[in-house]
């Protein structure tokens, strides 16, 4: 082979040499990587239950120790709630390199109902699966410990083989993602200078199917409110007052029933202000995926989409806003009968938003919707409101293109550009608080049963996820060489 004649060719060859060494190391140490993941999964780091606080501390210390073990400067940073794990790997050769911030979380959802687990939720195991061959079963296997460890293992393989990483890396792991992240905002304000990077990498997302990687191109936003309707001054005996007295439950249910028109459109004033239709290119791309709408619904016992007429199920999930009634409470709901007309009835409402919608404008429109329908002798009160806008990403950017090619190199198929019907508030926080965009790449699947009994993570997703991150880090270093 002819020796490289310029510095650019030499850098390419060195980078590919280091990548191939890291990939070989990942193959050789697959069992050890799985053992480390199982050790992580045994920690019962349930953030929502104070009884598990010490387990969350244990998970934070374990994570920091793993990062220190492979050469990161890692520390556990206290907060008012669960601690943050913050770690840095900085280049030592003095050459400028791209800088990435990797974000994940070490906390998990409660395991209840325990009786529905096939095996104990914090005793990880490999299990045969009728569709996906071998899977890792445990609480947190997919959300988010398995995903976190794909990145850490990729870094481990690089450092063990070449003594360095191809880019500068900061790792941020939080312990309250499953309990609304109350400490994250203050921590970003306090430690923002330590966290700023060229781009954030967020792993808490899906691939398209078991053999196809994906990059999430946009996230729906969120707005939420709780409305309480008050009628009589106190609860009343329905025999003595039933008929002439306005029942708040009836009033509330009547108004909520008008939120959607028969064609699925939301009836809130100004709700669709700023909403754009999916482009034909987007529609064609989603159509080409061959998404099984009937199978998607059948898995949860349903037979037909209930969103807006004229839109496919994927369009309803990824490109259209919605309103959902998350809970209703009023009157007597205990065992047996209590013939009461309640004084109050409440409902919790959430809105999934698309780019162009303002959460506060949506909440204001909801207030107007309710106020316009209030009868005499009924009053409305709103509480617990907030939200975050939808987030879209530039798919033509250099980081996206580099990551997409790296994923294709590993999986032998181009990644799908997914939308996400859910919200990931940290992504908007990175953009607003740190001026930093994010790249959303994960290896979970919709059937991983996250937040449910028998959560699993495909062994293939874990193994190829580690290799994918190694390729992505190398590709980011190549962007610097090409600059």
Q: Which key terms come to mind for this protein?
A:
single chain; 483 residues; alpha+beta; Aminopeptidase; Alpha-Beta Plaits; six-stranded mixed β-sheet; four-stranded antiparallel β-sheet; 14 helices; 21% strand; globular
Helical run tally: 14
Q: What's the CATH class label of the largest domain?
A: Alpha Beta
CATH fold call of the largest domain? Aminopeptidase
SSE-based structural type: alpha+beta
| Widest β-sheet, arrangement of strands | 1-2-6-3-7-17
Instruction: Give the count of structural domains.
Output: 2
The CATH homologous superfamily of the largest domain is called Zn peptidases
State the helicity in percent bands.
Answer: 25-40%
Give the overall form: globular
Radius of gyration, rounded? 25 Å
Span between N and C termini? Answer: 26 Å
Biggest sheet features: 6 strands, mixed
Please give a structural write-up.
By secondary structure, this protein is an alpha+beta fold. The protein folds into 2 domains: 7-219 and 391-482, Aminopeptidase; 221-275 and 321-388, Alpha-Beta Plaits (2-Layer Sandwich), CATH 3.30.70.360. Helix content is 37%, strand content 21%. The chain has 14 helices and 18 strands. A 6-stranded mixed sheet has the order 1-2-6-3-7-17, sandwiched between helices. Strands 11-13-9-14 form a 4-stranded antiparallel sheet, with helices on one face. A hairpin with a 3-residue loop joins strand 4 (125-129) and strand 5. Helix 1 (7-28) crosses helix 4 (145-162), helix 1 (7-28) packs antiparallel against helix 14 (459-482) and helix 2 (30-41) crosses helix 4 (145-162). The radius of gyration is 25 Å and the shape is globular. The two termini are 26 Å apart. The model has no long low-confidence stretch (mean pLDDT 94).
């Amino acid at each position: 082979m002819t020796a490289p004649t310029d510095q650019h060719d030499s850098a390419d060859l060195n980078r590919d040499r280091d990548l191939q060494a890291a990939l070989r190391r990942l193959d050789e140490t697959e069992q050890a990587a799985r053992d480390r993941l199982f050790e992580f999964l045994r920690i019962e780091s349930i953030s929502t239950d104070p009884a598990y606080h010490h387990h969350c501390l244990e998970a934070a210390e374990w994570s920091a120790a793993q990062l220190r073990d492979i050469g990161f400067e890692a520390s556990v940073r206290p907060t008012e709630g669960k601690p943050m794990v913050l770690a840095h790997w900085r280049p030592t050769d003095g050459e400028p390199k791209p800088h990435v911030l990797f974000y994940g979380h070490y906390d998990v959802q409660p395991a209840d109902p325990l009786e529905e687990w096939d095996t104990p939720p914090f005793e990880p195991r490999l299990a045969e699966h009728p569709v996906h061959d071998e899977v890792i079963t445990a609480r947190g296997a997919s959300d988010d410990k398995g995903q976190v460890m794909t990145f850490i293992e990729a870094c481990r393989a690089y450092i063990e083989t070449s003594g360095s990483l191809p880019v500068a890396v900061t790792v941020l792991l939080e312990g309250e993602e499953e309990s609304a992240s109350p400490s994250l905002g203050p921590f970003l304000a306090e430690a923002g200078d330590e966290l700023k990077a060229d781009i954030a990498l967020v792993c808490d997302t899906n691939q398209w199917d078991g053999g196809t990687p994906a990059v999430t191109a946009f996230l729906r936003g969120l707005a939420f409110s709780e409305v309480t309707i008050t009628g009589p001054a106190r609860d009343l005996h329905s025999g003595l007052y039933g008929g002439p007295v306005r029942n708040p439950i009836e009033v509330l249910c009547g108004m909520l029933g008008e939120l959607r028109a028969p064609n699925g459109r939301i009836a809130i004033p100004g709700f669709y202000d700023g909403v754009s239709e999916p482009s034909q290119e987007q529609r064609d791309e989603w159509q080409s995926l061959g998404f099984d709408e009937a199978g998607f619904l059948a898995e949860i016992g349903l037979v037909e989409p209930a969103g807006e007429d004229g839109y496919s199920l994927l369009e309803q999930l990824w490109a259209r806003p919605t309103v959902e009634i998350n809970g209703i409470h009023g009157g007597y709901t205990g065992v047996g009968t209590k013939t009461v007309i309640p004084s109050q009835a409440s409902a919790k409402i959430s809105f999934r938003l698309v780019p162009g919608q303002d959460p506060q404008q949506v909440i204001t429109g909801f207030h107007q919707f309710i106020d316009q329908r209030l009868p005499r002798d009924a009053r409305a009160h709103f509480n617990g409101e907030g939200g975050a806008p939808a987030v879209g990403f530039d798919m033509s950017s250099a980081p996206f293109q580099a990551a997409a090619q790296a994923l294709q190199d590993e999986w032998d198929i181009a990644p799908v550009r997914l939308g996400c019907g859910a919200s990931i508030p940290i992504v908007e926080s990175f953009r607003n608080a740190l001026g930093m965009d994010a790249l959303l790449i994960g290896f979970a699947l919709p059937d991983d049963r996250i937040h449910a009994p028998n959560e699993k993570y495909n062994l293939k997703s874990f193994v190829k996820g580690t290799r994918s991150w190694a390729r992505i880090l190398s590709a980011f270093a190549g962007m610097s060489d090409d600059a």
